[in-house]
Amino acid sequence: MRFFLLMVMGLSVAQSSNGQLPEKMAKKMGPNPVLFRDSVEITIDTLKAISPFDVADISIVIPKKAKKFLGDKGADGAVYVTTIKAAKLRNWNYLNSKSDKYNKAITSPDADTLCQYVLNKRSLTEKEAPGTIFLIRDKNFKRLNFIVNGVVSEDSAHTKQFQVYLFAKRPKGLLKNEKW
Asked: Range of 162's domain?
């Protein structure tokens, strides 16, 4: 089980509860951590079936903290996997609450493909945007500027209709080697 978790974490965005590398966090886990996909408890077989390309975020909760939230069930820790689909839905709801312009222009989570997201002056690729934006919460959110106009995205030759400039503090627990 630990080997598989390391493999998944190596291919995906990983966030730990105390900023340690995923390998160190996995060593602190017991043999049977509780597994979640999009906040629903899953089995190891279901976890193995998830494509790493569908993962936006992996959060590892060490046993001590997992036990606080899950009781004895969390004695070996917990792993929360968030898919890109779930991250896009969460991001869409969150950004709608921060900007009326965004709310009116972006009518569904999938319509975010019309946007070029820029976080703290760094343009996000379409691949990294869902997982990176997923880490923005009220605790680290500063502001959002929504601009209507065409811009060429960095990861494609397609013109984007909107620019979404996000400003946020670096989230607590984000791995030091993760861009922010």
From this structure: 86-168
Instruction: Give the chain's domain count.
Output: 2
Q: Give 10-residue mean pLDDT values along the chain (180 residues).
A: 47 42 73 95 93 91 93 94 96 97 95 94 93 95 90 59 95 74
In the chain, what's the furthest Cα-to-Cα distance? 53
Residue among 82, 81, 107 at smallest CA distance from 95:
107
Beta strands in 50-173 (DSSP E): 55-61, 78-83, 115-119, 122-123, 141-152, 159-168
- Give the residue from 18, 48, 83 where a domain finishes: 83
Alpha-carbon torsion (75, 77, 83, 84), positive or negative: positive
